[in-house]
Design brief:
The chain is α/β, with parallel strands linked by helices. The chain has 16 helices and 13 strands. The longest helix has 22 residues. The N terminus is likely disordered.
Amino acid sequence: MTKKRFVFRNVVAIAICLAGATMLLNCGKDPNNNGPITVKPDTNVSSSTDFLKSEGKNIRNNSGTGDIVHLRGTNVGGMFLQEFWMTPTQSVDNKCTAQGDIYQVLTERFGLDKALELIHLYEDNFFTEWDFDYCAGLGMNCFRLVLYYRQFVDGNGNYYGYDAAAADPYATAFAKLDWFIQQASKRKMYVILDMHGAPGSQNGMVKGGENEYWNSDRKVRSRLLYGQNDAEKNYFQDMYLNMWGIIANRYKDNPWVAAYDILNEPHCAGTADRDALWALYNKTYRKIRGIDPNHIITMMATSGNLADFNKYAKQYNFTNIMSHFHFSTSEKDVNTVLQQITPNVTQLTGFNFPVYGGEVSFGPNLDAWDTCLKMLVDSGINYTNWSYKLYNSFSQNNWGYFYMNNNNQNKVDLTTATEDQIRQKWGDKIKSQNAYTKNTAMADVYKKYLTK
């Protein structure tokens, strides 16, 4: 992606901000004024007792009055938001390096409808009912589902297939997410909705769907939080807040949605930036709570600032929340791993709300995994490992349960491949049971603690 193309995109975004403010402010409402559009849970597999709520340091079912529930499972990364180091798509120097580029490149080459068709083909094969059964068979009860804002809207912020006259105006835009939650609920598994790639990007990085080549300043690339001017920042924050409003409208009555994970790994450094981040969290919290008073909301502090959870939760009077932190290391020595992980566990469990290790990864030594998972379980921490499946070159660090052969012939170059070639690379070949090798040793260790 050239810098010139990105500058053009920014100018367009600001223009849309000025012209489309009314649309954005109303996009969380039913256009027919008949109340919020909601997706009802499957009554065959759910009841009011399945609804989770935080109560002190614990999560309990029956809306916070029942039994303690420990959420333990995996991240479904790479489905809606590809990071090319772990998915079967070739990174092409500053042209196609992130999920945002996938939408742009495919749209430029084939048109939006065909682009979405190809992207949906990938999603349909990346994670299937077979994968749900595998995870349920291990004993998992939870998925953290990585979301990217463009799975719902086009480049101008318009929801795909939006039909104001329909009973469900957002049915097209949310079809894939509805399917995922339905499949999880059939197996009595919860879903944490993780805004991993927000409008404008919260971290200016590939992991948030953002091409990192267009500007060397990460803050400039983190347009959700900073923007090159207030108009740009406000445009993306309006889109972000209203997207959470639509999500809350849609799933407010669904007990199998465990929590709204409102922003993944935001880029934030100094005190002023942290104040601004938590002010945005407060806006998001209020937006959701005005629609959905019941679901847990998770918030993530920046590394080294874990006390922010306690400080800002009290300042803003947050309730029914869960602290979110990523416990991760690539060290081999068990004692070194413990030295890195233990202080964070100690500090976080000292606060009076549940702790969630949204991404846990304990490196190449399975003894370290065993030791650290036991510590998380003994401390009452909820967790999901990062991630479910990826490429072989990272198997030595036990990043996932499945690894595809690390051969670039398995990856597709979206800037040059024909439609047929893309369909071939993103078809049956990327199903877990077809082209991936199980990381059985890691699964055996992980399984030990899933039901404790």
